[in-house]
What does this fold into?
Amino acid sequence: MYHFFAMLSRMKYIHRWGLMRNTREENLSEHSFETAVLAHALVLIHNREFGGNLNADRAATLALFHDAPEIITGDLPTPVKYYNQDVRESYALVEDMAKQKLLSLLPEDFQEPYTDIVLFENRDDPLNRFVKAADKLSALIKCLEEERSGNSEFRKAEQATRAAIEAMQLPEADYFMKHFLPSYQLTLDEQDN
It folds into this structure.
């Protein structure tokens, strides 16, 4: 009996933004789906607008699994995770152990293809930057949704996340923010026009 897929299904129980007051809680499963959609879009933008030739489907797959270790570790809040270099390095070790634990829940002949997905951040993969940007865009969208609901708790997070995306100097993310992000602040009726 192998527990990998049952463990992945537990993503829906991991809540994000634990230190923040949320008008609507977001779980890891929702975030991973949105990050996958955004990573796919960023790579399509890269290919169609900037002459790239990367695999958007693989980017979506990588993004689906990008936070899978948090099933084991939980969602460590950003201010804690990035408090200083020692904490970052220690948490990276914990996260790597969680990744190995997840992979051990697969039959041996399935471990190789999933290793390529679960450990992709540890490799020099050109899709890394798109998944990271999609992760940040998903966070930014959450901040905008919370602010739109009248929750000022996310104002500073929105500013910091926006600055982090801009600091990535990724034209594809800039393109998304210019052409697609404004729609997230509209009502359904306004989006229908």
Q: What stands out?
A: Residues 14 and 70 are 8 Å apart (CA to CA).
